[in-house]
Amino acid sequence: MPDLHDRALGAYLGFAIGDALGATVEFMRPREIALQYGVHRDIVGGGWLKLPAGQVTDDTTMSLALGDALLAGGSAEVRRFLDGDDGLVRDIGKSYVRWLKARPVDCGNTCRRGIQRFLLEGSLEGPFNPGDGGNGALMRNLPAVLATLHLEEAFARLSLAQARLTHNYPLSDQATLGFGLLLRLLLSGADTTACQQWVAQWVDEHPEFRFAPYRGQATAYVVDTVQTVLHFLTLHDDFEAAMVATVNQGDDADTTGALLGMLAGARCGAAALPQRWLQRLQPATLQAITVQTQGLLSLSAALHALPIAPTPP
Ligand code: MN
Ligand code: MN
């Protein structure tokens, strides 16, 4: 049984693998992918962003920006956030601003609009917007889950706060919380059966995300993204099989690939990830993810310890 650290690292590295692999076929139709690649299964770069092989996109770099802000504040700042202070959410917003100003290879429209609104007005969320149904808030939430593993209430509040900086749309919120809960379950060591049961029940409670029969839509609309990831996660037990099937569905393939990789990577652990994909990731990405995973797990443990820490004399 992989331990928590191996599962958490598996989730974050699996996420980056899916981003780097899927970016090659982002915005392509399955038929176009089949014509050009047969079955797309190698990290070769290219795609509409013309990436070098192994480079990740906004999915991974924006997640790292969230993780940076959480680590800079540490458990004390998360505790203050839980006590009602919004300093941490401002720090996350500032980290997204730095990320955007550093000219990332790509940035979704809703993310860009939300970051610019925060920069200009300082507001931590916009009004409800029917156009905020993209997957950008869901996509980057992994570090918030790792930082709050032992406190479910902290997980939910932090996830929604970081999400609302750019997206105010109920299905985005539900998807962000749902995938976070599923990731927590997988990190705790749930087996395939427990995972299937959890997904079946969650979809029962949130019928908009029902994915059987699978409609084959893998767009950046959060419902399509969630349905695609859950369909292939529950169809294939094997990381590689699930990943290849997901990215070959095309469309928002880097993001569906990343989220599939996060959940399937937590399920199998880092040690079971395909080496040929891991070795293709850029060393700086591997390094940043390894350091962040360790730091966020330590933050989570410290946060858990805080309420029972002895009061100073
Ligand atoms: Mn991307
Ligand atoms: Mn994408």
List keywords for this structure.
313 residues, mainly alpha, ADP-ribosylglycohydrolase fold, 15 helices, 0% strand, globular, binds manganese (II) ion
Description of the molecule:
By secondary structure, the protein is mainly alpha-helical. The protein has a single domain, classed as ADP-ribosylglycohydrolase fold (Orthogonal Bundle), CATH 1.10.4080. Helix content is 64%, strand content 0%. It has helices at residues 4-22, 30-37, 58-82, 87-101, 109-121, 136-139, 142-147, 152-164, 170-187, 192-205, 222-235, 239-247, 253-268, 275-278, 283-305. It is globular and about 55 Å long. The mean pLDDT is 96. The structure holds manganese (II) ion (2 copies). One manganese (II) ion binds at residues 26, 252, 254-255.
Largest sheet: none
CATH class identity:
Mainly Alpha
- Round the Cα radius of gyration to an integer and report it: 18 Å
Helix/strand order, N-terminal first: HHHHHHHHHHHHHHH
Low-confidence stretches: none
Name the CATH superfamily assignment.
ADP-ribosylation/Crystallin J1
At CATH level 3, the topology is: ADP-ribosylglycohydrolase fold
Q: From the helix content, strand content and strand pairing, which structural class follows? A: mainly alpha
- Mean pLDDT across all amino acids: 96
| Helical content class | 55-70%
Q: Report the CATH architecture.
A: Orthogonal Bundle
* Number of E strands: 0
Principal-axis shape: globular
Our count of domains comes out at 1
Query: How far is the first residue's CA from the last residue's CA?
Result: 42 Å
Number of helices: 15
Q: What ligands does this structure carry?
A: manganese (II) ion
